[in-house]
Design a protein that fits this description.
With 52 residues, the chain is mostly helical.
Length: 52
């Protein structure tokens, strides 16, 4: 009976779920941004090497 009570609060709190979703989205967008930066740097190096 007590264990059932313990496992309930996390599920019945939608605001916390929304928070984690936003945090996850923020992390994801940051990762994508850094990936694009790396790709841009790599493409820049390739272009410089090929053009010279």
């Amino acid at each position: 009976m007590f264990s059932a009570n313990v496992s309930r609060p996390g599920r019945s709190n939608p605001s916390s779920m929304k928070e984690t979703k936003e945090q996850w989205f923020e992390k994801g967008s940051q990762k994508v941004e850094s990936l694009f930066m790396e790709l841009n740097n790599w493409l820049g190096h390739q272009y410089m090497c090929c053009s010279s």
